[in-house]
Amino acid sequence: MDNVQNLPIDIQTSKLLDWLVDRRHCNLKWQSAVLAIREKINAAIQDMPENEEIKQLLSGSYIHYFHCQRIVEILKGTEASSKNIFGRYSSQRMKDWQEIVTLYEKDNNYLAEVASLLVRSVSYEGPSMRRQVAKAKQLQQELSRRELECQSGAADMRERFYASCKQYGITGENVARELQALVKDLPSVLEQLGKEAACLEEPIQLYSAFTCFVCEWSEPVVPMLTFVQQRGNTTVYEWRTGSPPSVTERPKVEEAPPDTVTEEMIDWGELGTAEGAGDFGISVEDGVNWGISLEPSTEETGSDGIDWGAGDAAPVEIEVVDMGTDCPEGVARGEDALSLLENPKTRGQFIDELMELELFLCQRLNEMAEEADVVAMSQFQLAPAVIQAQTRERVEGTLGALRSLLQRLTNVRMQHLFMIQASPRYVERVSEVLRQKLKQADILLLKRGTLAEQRQEALEEQGKLEPRIDLLAARTRELQKLIEADISKRYNNRPVNLMGVIVLRLGIVGVLTTPPPLRIPLPGRPFGGCPLRGRGATRLPRGARRGPERLEHHGRWADISVGTHAAGLRSSP
Hints:
- By secondary structure, the chain is mainly alpha-helical.
- Helices cover 53% and strands 4% of the residues.
- The chain contains 18 helices and 7 strands.
- The chain has a 3-stranded antiparallel beta sheet, with no helix packed on it. The chain has a two-stranded parallel ribbon with strand order 1-4.
- Helix 3 runs antiparallel to helix 6 (92-105).
- The radius of gyration is 53 Å and the shape is rod-shaped.
- It starts with a helix and ends in a 14-residue tail after the last strand.
């Protein structure tokens, strides 16, 4: 029996309360008794002596039976003066707490309560706090990731802003003013491009001679390009008439105000009033003759009442006036006062002729690379000298200069400048687009600040939960030891193990597992030290029958009363 005395009693923590009730250690209606005890505790703590240990016991913790025992021990020292010769205390404080301890010990109500506290801490409070800590950590990681995204997004938007400003050729400090300043410098830039077109004389002559020799083309080729090459970026008037104007009156471009329409500018009429109901602002007698009469006409308009206008009406004369004929001779006004590269129509023609000349030079380079045969050499023997004098290197150099001029005239910056010159509202639109990029960058930075605050709140919440988890873990271990010691006293100080108690420590979970089964021989008839197992055993001694909580072997049986191991072995004949 000494071996039986050393066998541990293993109890699953989640079923601890059921285990106590099933073995009649506690009453099934312990909750109603504990509720009455809690009311007495709430009344008793209102009158307590000044003691630091009592303050610690009563501060922020659930007062259970073992706390009450400690309070009684402390009161024995503080209320010693009220003790009479019979060993009783006349102090009401002492009487109240002694009564509470007595009520706890009745029907072992205290054991059921602390078991309930342990189960709640292990099964609910601990996992809930761990989930909150895990959620706070996950939220911090998510917010940190979103902070980085906002920061990179803001930097990307600012890079886009400065890249767009670089395309326009501005710094971005004052977009609208800088764009307007660029438009003021546009005529001088176009004048310089017109001067650089003078280097295109040789390719123009080559193109003209080639078309005349091959196609017998008698009309001039690229007339606009030839004119700019000879005279530069002159006015449209000079291109149209052939002579420079004596007076140039450039059109004045006024900046239109933004379209801001308010309700004060809109006349809604008297739609909502009783007097104006049905009157939508249309009046017959307002001085406007709409040609509609409500009275029947006295004139006979025909058999069907329709006037087809076949009367003796005077014919309408339309006079066509050519553009510029109303201006005095020698005066360039309106579009005629613009330069060839400023006017959209003439600029488009100039660019088309540049591209036409570029394609000709590219095709000519390809042909010159394939003119090594005798047929090609004999074909160009009668060609003009300007064609025969061309070499591949000279054509490539001319093509490079032409492409440089074309690229400078058609790049993104020049396109925006032309659009700004044509429409002043384009400046407002471009400024608004660029401001939106900066505004989005600022919004992302503000969002990043908000996310940082939320991450700090999650960190503070985690910092508040971790000490609570440590405190709960300490109280859980304390309750575990007290319950194990109390149950051990009821079974002659046999060791008691509460299985499945979760160790709570900053989210680290450790579960106490069941040790391997012991090999205990049955009293009176050993059978080779086979392990005693309950339901689910895979191997039994010969002659033994499996049962839910006992093993039978040749008329002798062992009762497995607790847990996995044989907790109480009894021999029966």
